[in-house]
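Sequence of Deoxyribodipyrimidine photo-lyase (Thiomonas arsenitoxydans).
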Amino acid sequence: MTLATEPATLFEPTLAAAQRRLAAVRPADYARSRNHLQGHVTRLSPYLTHGFLGLRDVVQHLSMRHGLGLQDKLLQELGWRAFFQQVWRHEGSGILQSQHLGPLPDRAYAPALPADLCEGRTGVPVIDQAVRTLYATGYLHNHARMWLASYTVHLRKVHWRAGADWMVAHLLDGDLASNHLSWQWVAGTGSSKPYLFNADNVAKYAPAAWHSPGTVIDASYERLDALARQPRDLGPEPGEFVGVAEPALFSEPPDGGFSQADARAVAAQDVWLVHPWALGPVPEGRLPVAVCDADWHARWPWSAARWQFVAARMQALAPVRWFGTTASLLEALKAARSVQGWHNPHLSAAWSDFALATPPPAFSEPTQRCRSFSAYWSRVQILSASSSIQGDLFHE
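Predicted 3D structure, token representation.
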């Protein structure tokens, strides 16, 4: 089975599947082969994004089972997720705007992807394979995401925000902080320089079907850097190529399973709030109520595969499942005796009406905004060293 034809069922929407994936992690193999598309990566990201597993729990499991410390590559890579979340907490919706100037002004980039790119018929095999894999599986190896983003921004002159919005809709693990800030890192608007790649890099890390000799990326890094600084879309490769249809996106669950919010279902009950980013275990003694916010999804639609992933888990967790506007959901929940659950920045500010708990941090985090991952990780190491003297490496 090739990377491009792995089914969307690659990720079973159950806690048991998430736990099996975590138990199967091999940190030494990860460190050795993580950059290869067929390397030993964890594929934990959908379960982390949607809260099947907490990042802190994953970090502590890996540390205790495998003796990992902050110098180990796997914890460093998980640290990127924590760093992006920290930036989001400080910047809020500012992460959806360029952090600073990239190689060209924002106005030099197109506001939408060209049809050949989003249909996987650019004629550059690595790009077309990445697009097909994204649609078929709802997942892409991080290296493939970087290649796709770099080509989109620097050679096709599409604004990073358009590319990030497109990708996050199709990813099972689509997280606004990790996705959009990664696109900014590639674009050079959230890093010190643009990320570039060439055909040799693809040949080193990808299967043969992805190799792209003789295409626009078959060039030196000096040449690619010059192209990134020229405001011209280089277009697809010459010739006719067969593409694939982009899967439809939905602003509401396509297969039902949800009802309108009804206060009578929760009246005088102690509710545990289940939402798309908090799909972990439900505490005993509380009524689990699953909610999907129509206002949020009108802005951020999902593929059918992602809806199915989330809805299946919600069905397993909660007998009460609502889809409605923010106002209707909040009004119905006011009938409950209490509402508890986990906060997540994907929820709008209106959800602060309920005192949702903030998940404990995975690492000893600095309170100040760090301007780069290296600065963030250095500070984490210093704080963790101080905490470890008190007997807890991951002390809050």
